[in-house]
Every structure is written in C-alpha cells, then in structure tokens.
Design a protein that fits this description.
490 residues, Aspartate Aminotransferase, domain 2, four-stranded mixed β-sheet, 17 helices, globular, binds 4'-deoxy-4'-aminopyridoxal-5'-phosphate, transit peptide, EC 2.6.1.44, aminotransferase, transferase, pyridoxal phosphate
Length: 490
C-alpha cells in the first residue's frame, strides 16, 4: 500500500516549489504512484487504463520487466562515465539503432530529449548547407527550447523570443486544410515560400509524419515525397521528427516517414526510444554528421551507459514482442470501432491515424467543423472518471489523442470505445438538461409534464448502470469549464 503524501499535498508542494508554467491534466490532478504495462495506479490503488503513455513515451509498457532488468543490471555496474572514456553500451545501442534505419542513415548522436535532438538537427543542417532558413509546418510541435520554439508553430507554446529564420508553410491537413487530401497543392506552398521568402536556398525542412501535439494529424498522401524533392533542389536537407511516430507505433512501418515513402537526411527521436528514460537521438549520414567535426559537440549524459542499456532493451522488446504488427492489428480494430462510433455521434468529426497513434476530433457541427472545445474538456474528465486516461491536443484542444503503450490490447481498445460511447451519450443528456437547468429547473418541470424526472434522476436512469459516473463530476465539469479550456501539453 502507498504511504506517501496525499494528492493534495503533492499538488501544493508542486505549486510552491515548481515553475508556474507547469500544466496539469484534469481539474483534480491525478496522483500517479505506480505503473505496470498499460496500467497506472493512483494513491488510493485505483487502476487506470493508460491510453496516452506519459505522452507517447512509455512505448513498451510501464516498468516493462526486460527494460527494467537491463537498466538495473547496468546501474549496478556503472551508471555514468561519459564519452571521454570507452564503454560498450553506447556503441551497441548506436549499432542496433542504425540497423533500423534505411539508406545511409548510419551515424548516431545521443542527446537527452526531443528538443535537444531537433536543436542538434538544425545545428547540422545550417552549417552543412551554408543557409539559415528552415521550413516547418503550421500546427507542428518540435520542442520548447529557445531555438525549437521557432520550429514549433502553435501559439500556445511561443514565448516572445527570437524565432530564427523559420518559415511556417500551410499544413497538409486532410481534414481541415484548404486543399483537402491533395498533397501536391500543399507542396506547392513550400515552393512558393522558397521562391518568395528566401534567397532561393534553404537549410532544411522538418516535419512529423503524424503531428502529435497538433492533434494526430496525418500529412496528406504524397506530400513528403514532393516536398523532399523541392527542398533538396533548394539545397536543403530533409529532417523527419520521429519523436512520436517512430518505433513501430504506426503499425504499417517502423518509422513514420516510411508511410510517405521517403528517406530523410536527418532523423530525430526521443520519447518512446527510452520507454521513459531521458533519451533522444539524431541519426544522419556520415557526410552530414561530419559537419560537426570542425568543433567539439559534447553532451554529458547523451548515450550514458544506463540510458543506452535501456534503449537497446527497448529495441529488443519491440522486435521480440512483435510490437509493430501488434500496433497494426490493435490500431486497425480501434480505428474501425471509432469510425462506427462516428456514425452514431455527430460530435465525432474525424477519426484518423495509423496503428496506435490515433486522433478523434470533436466538432459541434460537421459542416463548419467548429471545434467542440468545451465538450472535449468535459468528456476528457468523464473518461478519467471511468478509468481511462487519454491525451488531448490540437490548437483548440478538441482532439483526443490515443497513443497508449504498445502492449495495449483489443480488449483495452473495446473498453476505451465503449467508455467514450457511454460518455458521449450521457453528456448529450446532461448538456440538454443542463441548458434547461439554466432556464430554471422549476420552469422546465412545469412546462414538460411528461418529463417529470429531476435532473439527477434523468441522467442516472438514461445511462447504463455498468459504469456509474458520479453526476457531480459532470456538472462540476460544466461549472468549471474555464479551468478546463487551458492549452494542452505535449
Ligand atoms: N518533437 C515532437 C514531435 C514532440 O512531440 C516533442 C515533445 N512533445 C518534442 C519534439 C520535444 O521533445 P522533448 O519534450 O523531449 O524536448
């Protein structure tokens, strides 16, 4: 049993001693004390199905035994020495990672996070090409460090800092984008930016293949192939940010960029690479890597023995447990079930994604695609009450992001879809009644003789008994809506 401080004590201390920019999910923040594969436990011992994996990070499952073992065994021998000495773990891990890459992507730099990986990618692209101009997509997230904030194109994350020489091109978003699914039209916008906004030469182009923070937006088909050609003709290198899409998560491929049939010049990784260890990597060609050889590029912890041993164990687990195939199978089942649900609930505007990287975009009307911001916030709270943790994202916070540990099963997927179905159905009733509440409960009851049930009775009788969401949670959620409508985390 847990003997630590209560959720409130933890929260108070965090508020007092940690920076005010910290963001938390849920009105009553969840205090997680333990994790086991696809489950998390709070301090009362309540179990939650984790469909967000600590933001797509716990790729193989919480405290996966093989990975724990590798970390523990290495920790007992040597935790840290840094690359000024030799240690086999970093080379073993780099070799295994390079073996997963296509083409001539064979040189690895290890860092500690995704932001650092993208910083380093830019640090190579600029001197290598002799140009400063970078291109990234609107709605992209590539980090929160002072340079990567420039690549990130969502106002919620941008502090007033120099944003670098960065062009944000039209997002090839098949659902909301002006050109629908026509990848070539969006690619033309990249050419226009180069022609009108630069000297004609660029340093590079960076994109995720499925935008994570942006709300699981898959790029229009054919987009990357055309853009890579355009960028290379303008002297630039092509960078794939695989921080969220890598390591088999998309099911059909090991790397996200393979879904668009391209081979990048630089690939950046983090999150799932370490199953929770602070680890990131940049993989590139020997030629591009050599541009940093003119100075020293040093990173104290990058590829330290414990992280390298853990990272290697992650690669082995993904192969041994056939996680890529598993993601394809469970993901297609999940997506199909969500598409069926979409037929019954107008609020579901779009279901998209690949494998276990799925987005559900909620809209108040399907024609104008008005983001169902408040409704998403309420449903998000309800799912938590039902024991399911999902992510939330998109500029308007109206997209559920489903990116569980890759051990997530079909049964888990079914539970998630059933819970969402139940929450949407019960919320529709609550929302309707809540409006009537505003008009005055008495008046409603007088006017509608056949509906003589009270607000509470109506909700409880019209929802399945299987899961009993306390009504207070739903109504409270409506009352504190302003609190829920804050920007989202990465
Ligand atoms: N790239 C992508 C696609 C990301 O989603 C994130 C984090 N959300 C980053 C880069 C930055 O990673 P980190 O938070 O580890 O710096």
């Amino acid at each position: 049993p847990y003997n630590g401080p209560s959720a409130d004590e933890v929260f108070q201390k965090r508020k007092k001693f940690l920076g005010p920019s910290l963001f938390h999910f849920y009105q009553k923040p969840l205090n997680i004390v333990e994790g086991k594969m696809q489950y998390l436990f709070d301090e009362t011992g309540r179990r939650y199905l984790d469909a967000f994996a600590g933001i797509v990070t716990v790729s193989c499952g919480h405290c996966h035994p093989d990975i724990l073992n590798a970390i523990n065994e290495q920790s007992k021998l040597l935790q840290h020495a840094t690359t000024i000495y030799l240690h086999h773990a970093i080379g073993d891990f780099a070799e295994a990672l390079a073996a997963k890459m296509p083409g001539n992507l064979k040189v690895v730099y290890f860092v500690n996070s995704g932001s650092e990986a993208n910083e380093l990618a830019m640090m190579m692209a600029r001197p290598y090409t002799g140009s400063l101009e970078m291109i990234s997509l609107r709605n992209a997230y590539h980090g929160g460090s002072s340079n990567t904030i420039g690549l990130t194109a969502l106002n919620t994350w941008k502090y007033p800092l120099p944003q670098g020489e960065i062009h944000h091109v039209v997002n090839p978003d098949p659902y909301r984008g002006v050109f629908g699914s026509d990848g070539s039209m969006y690619a033309k916008d990249v050419q226009d930016h180069i022609d009108y906004g630069t000297s004609g030469k660029v340093a590079g182009f960076i994109a995720e293949t499925i935008q994570g923070v942006g709300g699981a937006v898959e790029l229009a088909p054919g987009y990357l192939k055309s853009v890579y050609d355009i960028v290379r003709k303008a002297g630039g290198v092509c960078i794939a940010d695989e921080v969220q899409t890598g390591f088999g998560r998309t099911g059909s491929h090991y790397w996200g960029f393979q879904t668009q049939d391209v081979v990048p010049d630089i690939v950046t990784m983090a999150k799932g690479i370490g199953n929770g260890l602070p680890l990131g990597a940049v993989v590139t060609t020997p030629e591009i890597a050599s541009v940093l050889a003119t100075k020293i590029q040093f990173n104290t912890f990058g590829g330290n023995p414990v992280c390298s041993a853990g990272g290697l164990a992650v690669l082995n687990v993904i192969d041994k447990e056939r996680r890529q195939t598993h993601c394809a199978e469970v993901g297609s089942h999940l997506i199909q079930r969500l598409k069926d649900l979409q037929k019954r609930h107008d609020i579901i505007g779009d279901v998209r994604g690949r494998g276990l990287m799925v987005g559900i975009e909620l809209v108040t009307d399907r024609k104008d695609k008005t983001p169902a911001k408040a409704e998403t916030a309420v449903l998000f709270e309800q799912l938590r009450e039902l024991g399911i943790l999902v992510g939330k994202g998109g500029l308007h916070g109206n997209v559920f992001r489903i990116k569980p540990p890759m051990c997530f099963t079909k049964d888990d997927a079914d539970f998630l879809v059933d819970a969402l179905d139940y929450s949407i159905s019960s919320s529709a009733i609550v929302a309707k009644l809540y409006k009537k509440e505003e008009a005055g409960r008495k008046k409603v009851m007088e006017e509608e003789e056949d509906e003589d049930d009270t607000f509470e009775d109506a909700v409880c009788s019209k929802t399945p008994a299987r899961v009993n969401t306390p009504l207070s949670v739903i109504t409270e959620a409506f009352e504190n809506l302003a609190d829920l409508l804050k920007p989202d985390i990465s």
